[in-house]
Design a protein that fits this description.
By secondary structure, the chain is α/β, with parallel strands linked by helices. The protein is about 35% helix and about 15% strand. It binds D-malate.
Length: about 425
């Protein structure tokens, strides 16, 4: 059944509906630079249109990386307990610290950054990595120059466009004033830093969304050195770090010297099924300074206190349960389940003769269709198999000719989708 409310048209173009009255407020001209809607609502809109066209089709979504398996019991019951206690005089709490609860901050520091010199005060609890990407953009303002991996998670670029950091969009090139660091099979998905121009802020995601590739220790050492040589700040997105199968670093702070040039954002979304609960964190080390010597963490703290009232206390109870020994084990089981899905998807496309990337260190499989237009491929796959994927070019010009297939799905759906891929491409 199609829910009407799913059909949300997010378009940068003015709506055809004319109203008689106009305010005197001018539109933020940066909004007009954005290309169409944000990628994932656009995929949802196309999926809804497809379901209207084929009301009887069994549509399977391997598009947006949304969790399908339930939150582990040990984590859900900790949230239920905290929720119940809010109904008591003793257990009630209102506004918490904007930076997050002390115990959760300390436990994140000791669980993910043990021996890396990251302490409780360096960790800021958020309502998800995506929200902190926007808060970081507010922190840096509109005058900074930005570099991104190409392809990359679209929130980095779109939030920068909204802030006014970029020029206009040019087809197949991207937005002016953004340094697109090409990541393709030709360079093993790690940019050739010798040809990258200096940028103030470098967004870097590893394991990467969408390509699924993880940067090695040697590559990250080069990246940190590059940032140091140029006086840049890396915003390192490690939201998929626990999916890593090899010994690539799980945090940028494993690289010596990174604390002077990097911020790390991360999330419980893809580990514990928190895409709806909303909980993440950002590490801003005290060593990181602006050009005038002012600590970045102090300004970030100011932004957080101004733009955010702290993560939900119930979600934070869940976060703490995630980091208990039972919680960590339960998260690994969930991750293991999705990794099996990844394996099924990889083997399917390989057996069909495609070049397939990613998957080993991430829940995303990056399939190459050389010379083909990704939106046409997306439409063809949807039309013929009723499976939703994501067109590679939605992640930047460097994604053209690829399709991202997400491993987040019930096993039966993943198997069925793979059966349909086999029928389509046999
Ligand atoms: C994705 O599909 O790339 C992500 O899950 C979307 C998100 O995290 O916002």
């Amino acid at each position: 059944r199609v829910k009407k409310s799913w059909i949300c048209k997010c378009s940068a173009k003015p709506s055809a509906d004319k109203t008689a009255y106009k305010t005197k407020v001018s539109r933020n001209e940066n909004m007009g630079k954005l290309q169409a809607g944000y990628l994932f609502p656009e995929i949802k809109r196309r999926r809804a249109a497809h379901m209207l066209k084929f009301p009887d089709a069994q549509v399977i979504s391997l598009g947006i990386g949304d969790i399908t398996e339930p939150i582990p019991e040990v984590i859900a019951s900790a949230m239920a307990k905290r929720s119940k206690s809010l109904a008591t005089i003793k257990g009630y709490s209102g506004y918490g610290a904007e930076q997050g609860e002390k115990l959760l901050r300390a436990t994140i520091a000791s669980t993910f950054y043990a021996n890396l010199g990251i302490g409780e005060h360096d960790v800021f609890i958020s309502d998800g990595a995506k929200n902190d990407i926007s808060r970081l953009q507010v922190l840096f303002g509109s005058d900074v120059t930005v570099a991104v991996q190409d392809p990359s998670y679209p929130a980095y670029v779109d939030s920068g466009v909204i802030m006014g950091q970029t020029g206009r969009y040019q087809n197949n090139v991207g937005y002016g004033n953004i340094e697109y660091m090409k990541c393709s099979p030709d360079n093993d998905f790690f940019p050739d830093l010798s040809s990258v121009s200096r940028a103030d802020v470098i967004f870097f995601c590893s394991p990467n969304n969408p390509t699924g590739s993880a940067a090695s220790r040697n590559q990250l050492t080069q990246l940190v050195q590059f940032a140091k040589d140029n006086g840049s700040i890396i915003i390192y997105d490690s939201a998929y770090a626990l999916y890593m199968s090899d010994d690539s670093p799980k945090s940028i702070f494993e690289i010596p010297g990174a604390k002077e040039v990097a911020i790390e954002i991360s999330s419980f979304s893809k580990y514990a099924g928190f895409t709806g609960v909303r909980l993440g964190w950002t590490v801003v080390p005290k060593e990181l300074q602006f050009s005038d010597g002012f600590p970045v963490a102090k300004d970030f703290n100011r932004i957080v206190c101004t733009c955010f009232n702290g993560a939900s206390n119930i979600a934070q109870a869940g976060g703490l349960a995630c980091l208990s020994p039972e919680g960590l084990e339960a998260m690994q089981e969930v991750i293991g389940f999705y990794k099996e899905n990844t394996h099924i998807i990889i083997e399917t496309f390989k057996s069909l003769g495609f070049n397939v990337y990613g998957g080993k260190n991430a829940p995303y499989v990056w399939v190459h269709f050389p010379g083909q237009n990704s939106w046409d491929l997306f439409e063809e796959i949807l039309e013929k198999t009723h499976v939703v994927t994501i067109p590679g070019s939605g992640f930047g010009p460097g994604g053209e000719g690829f399709i991202r297939v997400s491993a987040f799905g019930h096993r039966a759906n993943v198997l069925e989708a793979c059966k349909r891929f086999k029928e389509l491409y046999k």
